[in-house]
Amino acid sequence: MVREENSYKSSEDENKEEKASSLVEKIQQLGQTNIPQMPQDSKIHCLTIIGQIEGHLQLPPQNKTTKYEHVIPQIVAIEQNPNIEGLLVILNTVGGDVEAGLAISEMLASLSKPTVSIVLGGGHSIGVPIAVSCDYAFIAETATMTIHPIRLSGLVIGVPQTFEYLDKMQERVIKFVTKHSKISEEKFKELMFAKGNLTRDIGTNVIGPEAVKYGLMDEVGGIGEAIKKLNELIELKKKENEGLIQ
Amino acid sequence: MILYTPVPKEIIFQPDMAAYEKRKEVIYEGVPMLVESGENNSCRIVRLLSTDPAHYLDPRFMPGNTIAVDF
User: Chain A residue with minimal CA distance to B7?
Assistant: First the structure.
C-alpha cells in the first residue's frame, strides 16, 4: 500500500515537473506562455513588409529584410487561392531597393482581391508606393513616412547621365504614388524636395495625420479599423459579384 | 575611422559566407519558414514567411522552436 502511494506521488511530481518545464521552455522561446488558437483557415491573409526591402544585393543575414522572391510568390498564391478573400499589408520598413519595391507595389495594385495597408512605425522611402498601392491605406497616428528623392546612397551625385537615369527612375515612383493616392504631383514633389526637414538630405518626414492631410494615405487608424475596412471591401466585392450573376 | 564613400556599408564590410550558409528557407508541414542549423539534424525556427495568420498562432511553429528537418 505504502509503496503504491509513493509511486503515485512520484508520478504526480513528474507530471508537475513536465508541465513546469514546458512552460519554462515556452517563456524562453517566445517570452510568453500561450497564444489563442484559430478555428479554421483565415480568409484574410497578412503580408508584412518589414526591415529593408532587398533588391539584387543580398544583405547580411543579421539584417531584417523583405525579399521580393518571398513576397511575389505569396501574392500570386493569394490571388489564386479562392479561400482567401482579402489581404492586409502591414508596413514597418526603412525602404530599400527601388525596383524591388516598385515590383511589390505593382503586384499589390493589380491584385483582384480587396487590399488594405497599414503603416506602423515607419513606411519610408520606397515603402510609400507600397503603402499607397492598396485599395485603402491606413497610417498609425505615430507612424511616419519619409519622402525623399531617389539616390544611390546618402550623397548627391553630380554626373549628368547618372542624374538623367535617376530622374527617370524617380518619375516612375512619383507617377505610381500620384496614380494610387489622392496626393497631387506638385504636392508630392514639393514634399520630396523640401529643404531643412531632414539631416543632410532633402525631403520631408510626414507623420500620421499629416500623411492623410496631404492625401497620401486615406485614414489614420490601427489594426481594428484596418480589419473593419477590409471586411467592408470584401462584402462590397461579394455584392458586386452577385450582381454580375443576375 | 571615418569612411567617406557612396558605397553601401554592406559591400565594404562583407560578412563571411559561413553566416549565410547557417540559415536556410524551408517549407515544413506546409509552412514556409527561415531556419538556422542546430545540433544533430535539428533546426531552430528563426522566422515564419507565411501570410496565413493562423500559422503564427500554432505553438509548433513558434520562433525558437527546434524542428527535425535535414539541413
Answer: A153
